[in-house]
Amino acid sequence: xxxxxxxxxxxxxxxxxxxxxxxxxxxxxxxxxxxxxxxxxxxxxxxxxxxxxxxxxxxxxxxxxxxxxxxxxxxxxxxxxxxxxxxxxxxxxxxxxxxxxxxxxxxxxxxxxxxxxxxxxxxxxxxxxxxxxxxxxxxxxxxxxxxxxxxxxxxxxxxxxxxxxxxxxxxxxxxxxxxxxxxxxxxxxxxxxxxxxxxxxxxxxxxxxxxxxx
Length: 214
Hints:
3-stranded antiparallel sheet; 4 helices; 6% strand; elongated; zinc ion binding; Znf_RING_CS; zinc; Znf_RING/FYVE/PHD; RING-type domain-containing protein
């Protein structure tokens, strides 16, 4: 029978594997989740790799509970105190960001540290920190959207300015062409007048020649 070692946890709820609804089950793609999470998956796709699976193809794994050593009370107290201190420090840093602000790099690093810490503890613990972490993550998301929109707006503004400048150039070219057309039209009228005068002069000369030869 396949088995898991002590300390293993479900990748969905992050709770340690146990018995009954917390018992570990493997699906065909190889990922392991607890019975409870598999029962609540709306679509039977692996939450990690999205590979489809059927409930009848899941394999229940054996959890080696007998070899799990219960930690001494001193170990538990030290671990709990260390986690509490880390949670308080992260909470205070989030508060400082909210009050004093921070750079994008500092905020990103803080959210990464919060996520790494919260992934190591049960979901029922440090609810205030989880709430603050979610708010900080949302704030970072909104800020990124705002920055991107500002960047797009700047690009649009530059494009509008470029088009306005191009329009002004076209207007100047249009006026130049209109003036050229007016000049050509005047020259054409002058040429037509000269041609007509020349035609009249030819007619007069021919008439005089006829008079002389008669």
